[in-house]
Amino acid sequence: MGDTHEASRLTIRMRSDGSGGHWMAREKDDRFVHFRSEYFKSMLTTMAALAAEHVFYGENTSGVGGDMSSVAHQAAIMVGHAAMPPERVPMPATMTRSEEEAARKKLDDYFLDTGGKLLAVASLSDHYAEALTRPDKRQLAARIVGHAYLVAYKFAEQNKDAISRVADELVERRELNGDEITQLMDSLHLKPAVVDYLEERTWPRL
């Protein structure tokens, strides 16, 4: 999200409402509309805690409940209000039509299963829940959420050492702000997730 946002706070201090640490980012410019890719990036950052807990611990804590509620809200907005369907994942041009159809069916089943499980346990306000009462919209949302989980998980898995360094820094300093966050992240050389959409055995399972 670095093109559109700047990090303002990263902390593990307990908040007054009893919730744990958090991070905050603000948009560089005031905007009233956002692209689908920006919604998906926002969902990835919101999904990050859940994915990282699964990578590091093999299960998640109760601390990600609010995050998953936010993920469900974002998915509901995308399919229920903003006319944003799931992304069509690119496939190798060398594939035959039947090979591509079979690969997409496997991937789609994974997204539906994974995203469906995450939506089923997420808390939703009545306003957003209504957008997902229609089976077709709920399936679209599940595909988006399942895709986001796969990318977030692979990012955490492939950047595990760097994430551990961030955690160590926060344990020592408790809180980072503004340029401190930028400098730390720049020093880590984080790499975008590499996702093999054709290799089913590499996909994390819930």
Can you put this structure into words, describing what you see?
The chain is mainly α. The chain contains seven helices and three strands; from the N terminus they run E-E-H-H-H-H-H-H-E-H. It has a single domain, classed as Peptidase M41 (Methane Monooxygenase Hydroxylase, Chain G, domain 1, Up-down Bundle), CATH 1.20.58. The relative contact order is 0.16. The model has no long low-confidence stretch (mean pLDDT 91).
List keywords for this structure.
three-stranded antiparallel sheet, Methane Monooxygenase Hydroxylase, Chain G, domain 1, globular, mainly alpha, 7 helices, 57% helix, 206 residues, 3 strands
Write the topology of this structure:
Blueprint (H helix, E strand, L loop, with lengths): L4 E7 L10 E6 L8 H22 L7 H16 L16 H25 L4 H6 L3 H24 L1 H14 L1 E3 L1 H10 L18
Helix pairs in contact: 1-2, 1-5, 2-5, 3-5
Distance between the termini: 27 Å
Question: Low-confidence parts lasting 5 or more residues at pLDDT below 50?
Answer: none
What pattern of helices and strands is seen along the backbone?
Answer: EEHHHHHHEH
> Could you tell me the strand content as a percent range?
5-15%
Proportion in helices: 55-70%
What Rg do the Cα atoms give? Answer: 18 Å
Secondary structure class reads mainly alpha
How many domains, in number, for the residues? 1
Q: For the largest sheet, list the strands in their spatial order.
A: 2-1-3
The number of helical runs is: 7
CATH superfamily: Peptidase M41
What is the overall shape?
globular
Largest sheet: 3 strands, antiparallel
What is the name of the CATH class? Mainly Alpha
The counted number of beta strands is 3
CATH architecture type: Up-down Bundle
CATH topology: Methane Monooxygenase Hydroxylase, Chain G, domain 1
Mean of the pLDDT scores? Answer: 91
